[in-house]
Automatic annotation (TrEMBL):
Organism superkingdom: Bacteria
Record field: transmembrane: 30-52, 64-82, 102-130, 150-170, 182-200, 212-233, 239-261
Keywords carried by this UniProt record: Membrane, Transmembrane, Transmembrane helix
Taxonomic lineage of the native organism: Bacteria, Bacillati, Chloroflexota, Anaerolineae, Anaerolineales
Record domain EamA: where: 1-136, 149-283
Provenance organism: Flexilinea flocculi
CC terms in the record's Gene Ontology section: membrane
Family membership noted in the UniProt record: Belongs to the EamA transporter family.
One Pfam family cited in the UniProt record for this chain: EamA
Heme listed as a keyword: no
Protein name: Uncharacterized membrane protein
Amino acid sequence: MWILFAFGSALFAGITAILAKIGIRNTDSNVATAIRTVVVLLFSWLMVFLVGSHTTIQDINGKTYLFLGLSGLATGASWLCYFRALQLGDVNKVTPVDKSSIILTMLLAFVILGEKITLIKLIGMIVIGIGTYLMITKKQSEVKATDKRWLIYAALSAVFASLTSILGKIGIQGVESNLGTALRTIVVVIMAWLIVFITGKQHTIKTIEKRGWIFLCLSGIATGASWLCYYRALKDGQASIVVPIDKLSILLTVIFAYIFLKEKLNRKSTIGLFLIVAGTLSLLLTI
C-alpha cells in the first residue's frame, strides 16, 4: 500500500511545480512560499480532523516533536531555495537539480537509518546521477553569467530536501502520518512568514493579481495532497525507495512544462530524463 501512496505523492508533486511556477511569475518567491504554505497547513489539519487523529496529540513524545520540528525547518529552507530557483531558471532545469536529493537521501538512509544497500540500489543511484547531470548541463553557447544563481538555489533546495526526508522518517514513526504532516507544517509556516517579514516583503502581498492567488492556492492544495501521501508512504516504507518514487514527479513536471509553459527538452535532457526514470523504477526490483 505504501507504494501507491509514494506514487500518489509523485503525481501531486508534479502538478505542484507547474502551478507554483505560474503563480510566482509576478510575485516575490518568499511571499509566494509563505502564502501557499498557509494553504498546505489548512489542508493538512482538515485531513487530521477528518481521520480523527487529533485525539492522539497528547500521546506524542518529545523526540517525535523534535524531529518533526527539524524536518519542518529543513522543508522551509528547501522551499525558499526551490521557489527562488524557479523564479530565476526554467522548470526543466531547476527540477532535476532539486530531485538530485534522491542520491543524498539514499546515502543518508543507508548511514543514518541503517537501510540495506544493494547492488540494484547502487546502480539505480548512479543512473539517476548521470541522468540528472545530462538534464542540467547546457551547451556553452547557452550559458549566461546569471544562470548560475538558479543552480545554487536549486542545489541548496536538494540538500535541505534530503534532510527533510530523513528527519521526517524518524519523526513520523511516533505519530499518525496525517497528524505528523500537519504538525511539521506549523513550523514551515512560521519559518516562511518570518523570512517574509525579515526581508520586508510583506507589503508586496497586496500587489498579487487574482490569477496569482488562484495558482498559489491550487499549488498549496497539490502540495498538501503530496505531503499527506508522502509521509504515509515514508512511515511504512523504506526511505531509500519512497523518496526516489516521489521524485518521479519530474516526469510529470516536464510534461506539464511542455504543455503549459512551452518549455522543451533538448536531446541530451531527454536522455537524462529517461535515465532518471529508469534508475528510479529499477529500485522497485528491491522491494
